[in-house]
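Quick start: read one record
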Amino acid sequence: MRRCGPRYVGAVFADILQWSAQFAHDASAWVTQIAQAHPLWCFPIAFAVAFAESFAGLSVLIPGFAVLVALGGVIAASDIGLFPAIAGAVLGALCGDVISWGQGLHYHHQILHLWPFRKYEARLERALHFFHRWGAWAVFFGRFLGPFRATVPLVAGMSELEFRRFMAASIASAILWAFGLLAFPAYVAQFAL
């Protein structure tokens, strides 16, 4: 039996999409249950999710956007303070960015040939183009563009962007990003409840 061709590939692709959607739903549900049961865990949960979302290599595996939005809704439904979750998300995003920037600075363009980055060579090339077009602003705007979130800090290191300029853009974008992903759903959920 031959297993190739457009129908087989389409079926495999549909299975992967279904599995990804189920994984994102299950991860959001798990985070919601943990945060409701243990309100003090909002800081480490937000830190870990934002770190994974911002760290090159892990960002593909973790549905961080959905999890942080769900966490914002849980915060509104509970009497949990919003500040610890926002602080955790900001610090996690910054840690992921700094490590990715350091990897880019250390390995430069050799990183395109290393595992797991060689699998995402096209994404890194798009991020390089995006970075060369926008410079330090790419770090700021890249945070809000899903495919670039983890790759732009890596490319900033590869391009030897000055650390001070990198951190200024990264801190400003991390604060806005965390606030938007956590506070906005919390605000909307308060009116829905």
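The chain has a mean pLDDT of 80.
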